[in-house]
């Protein structure tokens, strides 16, 4: 007996031709200006007319200073670049006297500075390797050799720049040369225990973040956790802020506090404090890299 397969013969179905359209590009616009009617409409109209889709929009109207701060994330035509957007937006910015920037998805390139305490560096490396830092670690610079192995184990170049009163100027010039050579967008002082000169602080203004071992204002100077123990503190904190020429007075990006009690000695306080430092610094770095931090005179607006 002959068995005939009666199932229908499937003919190949032509696949839809792959779209020749390039994938949409993602951008972020940040701006600050004096509060006036029509600003948001001008921004949304500008984006709509160019075929962009708004994916996230946040704004803050500061009633005391009568200013508006805005962050808009959007996507659309791939032929646009931040430079082209800035050029075409210029007339609107001039009309409203805006300070503004356009950014694309290019990740911020980060140089980390560290001394002998490695907990913040270790945390940044962990988050970077896990993809949650928001930027790319590129280089580690230190005035000690202590953490060379940690950096190199993560595949990061490690540069040792000793600092003495006599070599401080040369050391800072070497740092600026590295910033330029590696196209660094952000310098992170991850418990780097050297005071930057006024000139270097100004050169890195708005692109250098420091972590302070206190909930500012707090215990300044040496042995902060011993000072905290002597005063019987009930909260241990840390403050991430932008570097300025005024020591530890830069605009604050993030603060973290952890409750403690009388049973915590200096060592326990230090351990808890290091947790707070790592967490506050990581948040500040991530928000900066995502263009969520807008400088507002001596303070910041942070769109989380």
Topology:
Elements: E1 25-34, H1 39-49, E2 53-62, E3 67-76, H2 82-96, E4 99-103, E5 108-114, H3 119-130, E6 135-142, H4 148-153, E7 158-160, H5 168-181, E8 186-189, H6 198-203, E9 208-212, H7 224-231, E10 235-242, E11 252-259, H8 266-289, E12 293-296, E13 299-302
Parallel strand pairs: 5-6, 5-8, 6-7, 8-9
Antiparallel strand pairs: 1-3, 1-4, 2-3, 9-10, 10-11, 12-13
Give an account of the 3D structure:
It is a single chain. The protein has about 300 residues and is α/β, with parallel strands linked by helices. It folds into two domains: about 25-105, Alpha-Beta Plaits, CATH 3.30.70; about 110-300, Rossmann fold, CATH 3.40.50. About 30% of the residues lie in helices and about 30% in strands. It has eight helices and 13 strands. It has helices spanning about 40-50, 80-95, 120-130, 150-155, 170-180, 200-205, 225-230, 265-290, and strands spanning about 25-35, 55-60, 65-75, 100-105, 110-115, 135-140, 160, 185-190, 210, 235-240, 250-260, 295, 300. Strand 2 (about 55-60) and strand 3 (about 65-75) form a beta hairpin. The longest helix has 24 residues, at about 265-290.
What descriptors fit this protein?
disordered N terminus; alpha/beta; 32% helix; 304 residues; Rossmann fold; Alpha-Beta Plaits
